[in-house]
């Protein structure tokens, strides 16, 4: 680590997750300063002009949304020979688009909720329940509607009727993009933080909201993130599945795997986040704390992994 002196933290950006990214970046910046690094914090919303990054030893990516998670930034940094935290271009590209992500999981027989994609919400949509039945031969009473490319539960809606669908179209912040309808797995939700290819303590997510939406993630103080109470064999099962999915998508360094468990006990991979939140409400710092890793040490370990 002696060669690392100057660190730049990229945060903010222009995505719908800007406010989350700002809080993440500010926390990381303070930790870097406390660790003795010469750190600079830059609010970046133009990832096409990156020449100024050459003067730094490493880039800590705290940009959420397209700018930090789609793989575009990582590809450019690779071509410039600049070190950065987190997963590579391919892994980010594979996890950023939810439809592509699910296709990869299904091709490797890794369980994930079933669903189908649509091009946008601007035009009249056929009943998603009918489409699901036609595709899978099964009636379903509840679906989730979510953008193919976005995070932090932006524009995610529960759909239990066509009336719900109509309301969702009117409420969505951006309808002119790809969306995914996904079956609801309604029982328990977990998240597994991964650091240096090892699982940190598993968290169970409990919220008073109807699901783990933006408010539950970043605003509500009633959301509970508690260490999951598993028997040893079940704990190993969820850890093995999380690592299998993490590696299948080409992820490395650090990240977060979100899972659902149905009433029969089966686990499903919901999504993988290659640039997880680092706010005081975020799962990775909470999971690290359960393992005896302080926020400052967590930041240092992420930097160390990028350097190695």
List the helices and strands and how they pair.
Layout lengths: L5 E6 L6 H17 L3 E6 L14 E4 L4 H4 L2 H9 L8 H8 L1 H10 L7 E4 L9 H9 L6 E5 L9 E3 L2 H10 L7 E5 L4 E8 L2 E2 L3 E4 L7 H5 L5 E4 L4 H17 L5 E8 L5 E7 L9 H8 L4 H13 L1
Parallel strand pairs: 1-2, 1-3
Antiparallel strand pairs: 4-7, 5-6, 5-7, 8-9, 8-10, 8-12, 10-11, 12-13
Helix pairs in contact: 1-11, 3-4
Order of helices and strands: EHEEHHHHEHEEHEEEEHEHEEHH
The CATH class of the largest domain is identified as: Alpha Beta
CATH topology tier name of the largest domain = D-amino Acid Aminotransferase, Chain A, domain 1
Shape: globular
**Any idea what the CATH architecture of the largest domain is?**
2-Layer Sandwich
**What is the CA-atom radius of gyration, in angstroms?**
19 Å
Portion in strands: 15-25%
What can be said about this structure in brief?
With 308 residues, this protein is an alpha+beta fold. Helices cover 36% and strands 21% of the residues. The longest helix is centred in the N-terminal third of the chain and has 17 residues, at 18-34.
Report on the structure:
The chain has helices spanning 18-34, 66-69, 72-80, 89-96, 98-107, 128-136, 162-171, 214-218, 232-248, 283-290, 295-307, and strands at 6-11, 38-43, 58-61, 115-118, 143-147, 157-159, 179-183, 188-195, 198-199, 203-206, 224-227, 254-261, 267-273. It is an alpha+beta fold and 308 residues long. It has 3 domains: 6-85, Rossmann fold (3-Layer(aba) Sandwich), CATH 3.40.50; 114-183, 2-Layer Sandwich (Dna Ligase, domain 1); 186-307, ATP-grasp fold, B domain (D-amino Acid Aminotransferase, Chain A, domain 1, 2-Layer Sandwich). The strands form 3 sheets. Strands 8, 9, 10, 11, 12 and 13 form a 6-stranded antiparallel sheet that branches. A hairpin with a 2-residue loop joins strand 8 and strand 9 (198-199). The longest helix has 17 residues, at 18-34. The model has no long low-confidence stretch (mean pLDDT 90). Pathway: Cell wall biogenesis; peptidoglycan biosynthesis. It is found in: Cytoplasm.
């Amino acid at each position: 680590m002696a060669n690392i002196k100057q660190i730049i933290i990229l945060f903010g950006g222009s995505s719908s997750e800007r406010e989350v990214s700002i809080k993440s970046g500010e926390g990381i910046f303070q930790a870097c300063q406390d660790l003795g690094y010469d750190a600079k914090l830059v609010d970046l919303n133009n990832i096409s002009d990156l020449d100024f990054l050459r003067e730094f030893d490493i880039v800590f990516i705290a940009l959420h949304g397209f700018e930090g998670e789609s793989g575009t930034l990582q590809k450019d940094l690779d071509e410039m020979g600049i070190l950065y935290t987190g997963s590579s271009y391919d892994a980010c590209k594979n996890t950023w688009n939810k439809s592509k992500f699910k296709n990869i999981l299904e091709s490797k027989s890794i369980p994930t909720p079933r669903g189908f994609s649509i091009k946008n919400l601007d035009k009249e949509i056929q009943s998603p329940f009918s489409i699901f039945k036609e595709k899978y031969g099964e009636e379903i009473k509840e679906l989730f509607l979510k953008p193919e490319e976005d995070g932090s539960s932006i524009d995610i809606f529960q759909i239990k009727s066509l009336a719900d669908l109509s309301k969702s179209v009117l409420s969505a912040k951006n309808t002119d993009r790809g969306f995914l309808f996904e079956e609801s797995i309604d029982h328990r939700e977990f998240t597994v933080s991964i650091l240096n290819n090892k699982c940190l303590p598993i968290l169970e997510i409990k919220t008073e909201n109807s699901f783990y939406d933006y408010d539950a993630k970043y605003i509500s103080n009633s959301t509970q993130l508690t260490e999951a109470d598993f028997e040893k064999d079940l704990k190993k099962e969820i850890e093995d599945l999380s690592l299998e999915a993490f590696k299948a998508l080409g992820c490395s360094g650090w990240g977060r795997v979100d899972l659902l468990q149905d009433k029969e006990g089966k686990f499903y991979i919901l999504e993988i986040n290659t640039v997880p939140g680092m706010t005081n409400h975020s799962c990775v710092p909470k999971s690290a704390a359960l393992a005896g890793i302080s926020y400052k040490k967590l930041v240092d370990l992420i930097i160390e992994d990028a350097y190695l």
